[in-house]
Amino acid sequence: MLEHVLHIVGLTVLAGACIPLGGLLASFERIRPGWLDQEFRHFLIALGGGILLGAVAVVLIPEGQASMGDSLWAIPTIILGGFVFFVIERILGLKRRESPQLMGVMLDFIPEATALGGLAVVSPETAALMAVLIALQNLPEGFNAYREIVCLPGYTSRKTLIFMSCLVVTGPLAGLLGYFFLTGRPFALGAIMLFASGGILYLIFQDIAPQSRLDKHWGPPLGAVVGFCLALFSHDLVGQV
What gap in Å lies between CA 183 and CA 173, rounded to an integer? Predict the structure, then answer.
């Protein structure tokens, strides 16, 4: 049991550490000239969206459906996830705290880390793959979330990085929650993965994809393709181990 706990904590901490790492990269002096900085930022937004889409397509939905025994309940669960994320976003928007990249970090990191904890015993390979995908998506999301947060009133660069570092703790907490409460409950585990998939799909098409678009530039669309391929490559790589 202790071995499993340490394994889950290690995976989720390493995956979550990419949030402040992305923020740290974003804290360096902006790229010059200005058009290249803008192109690079939009590329990273699209890269994160592509990785999220890849995680949904190659891991969350296939594994979630399998865990639920290919039940038709999978479809309403995905729809429910999208609707709940919509409600949360509207609530945050009404309070004038709408930060889609930051919300994307937390709303996909927490359920994915929870699912990782539940999978750590029954499917260690899938758990490792999820940790890789979470880390890959957290890096560009952390980069973009830093740019959002540091522009808010009262947030300096140092305060923003400290805040982002505190978010890492949510990963192990969610992972251990999944380990203790979802191990041996495949239907519930699958439901969480599908619920997260619906929310992620909503965020991609509502916030991330529109932000990534840049007129007369080819970098952002290629970023989405690269992100999806990174997720697919990680899946294939783990499958061959």
Answer: 15
